[in-house]
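An instance follows:
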Amino acid sequence: MMELRHLRAFLAVAHHRHFTHAAAAIGLAQPALSQHVAQLEDELGVRLFERARRGALLSDPGRAFLPRAERVLAELEAARSEARDYQGLVRGRVVIGTLSSIAALRLPTVLARFRHDHPGIELVLREDHSAALVTQLSSGAIDLAFIHAGSLQRRRRPRPAPTPPDVASATLETEDLVLALPRRHPLAAARQVGFAALAAEPFVLYDPGSTVREIVMAAAAQNGFTPRVALEATGNDTVRAFVSAGFGVTVLPRGLAAAPGPPIVTVELTAPRVARTVSIAWRRHGAMQPAVRAVFDLLRASLTTA
């Protein structure tokens, strides 16, 4: 069977036109080099060299075989170089599944730092709800994911969001959710508002699948009502804009509510106090590729506040 050592021996002799010189050039004993060439000739069924007293000259089949052997070894070296680039974070691709709130507020600065240090690594963001991101992570469509879990009472020691057996996760932060109101709303002057007081309010809610929406529904159910939905939307900016315009009230993570945007008023929520836990998730089985590991370590170190 033809092996790479046979090709290397052949090329050495072809370039040096001498078995002894070729053996010295590649650090191989001459008998071993001669054996490799002979094995290659047996495999091909032709003589590749015409042996002469002062050296070795390529035969006609040898001259025809030479460029193919050179291409094979060139491709091998290119593959090795490329693999070293990936290992050394010179090249690579990392797909991150993220929630829109994380993508807008937390990731730009952190990933800009990574991009500065590793300009050859391609970064891809996929925005979706937590459940969809976990599915994509399990299937291998994405490498890392930010996911939410809701709580009706903030824990002293937040737990990671629940995940299937093939996905692991670690908590980054737990953030209170606050009531967001139009500026002229009757409750805008209150310091705290219990969920029961919102039973008659129209709500601007994230679309189904959103963890924040699920938290609102659970808190309302705990207080004996179902929220009256005036508008559903996907984007944070859209939800906030419609609240600002007086369409209804909503519940937002505190960081989003404090971010620049259309004017709203925020009020603390009680009975129950609601919060969300943000976790970073990854596939449990198999080693992370070097680029994925580098991004994961940076995100976890930079965003962990819990």
Observations:
- Residues 4-87 form a domain with the Arc Repressor Mutant, subunit A fold (CATH 1.10.10.10).
- The chain has a mean pLDDT of 89.
